[in-house]
Amino acid sequence: MKLTFKDREMDPNISKINQEEWFKHWFDSSFYHKLYANRDEREAAGFVDALTEELVPANDSKMLDLGCGNGRHSKRLSLKGYSVTGLDLSSASILDAKKYESSNLNFFRHDMRLPFGNNYFDYVFSFFTSFGYFKSNLEDEQVLSNISRSLKPGGMFVMDYLNVAYAEKRLVPDEQNEIDGIVYKIKRWTDEKHFYKSIVLANTGSRYPVEFNEQVRKFRVEDFNQMFANNNLQLQRVYGDYQLGTYDKETSPRLILFAQKISK
Question: Residue 177's beta-bridge partner residues?
Answer without folding.
Answer: 184
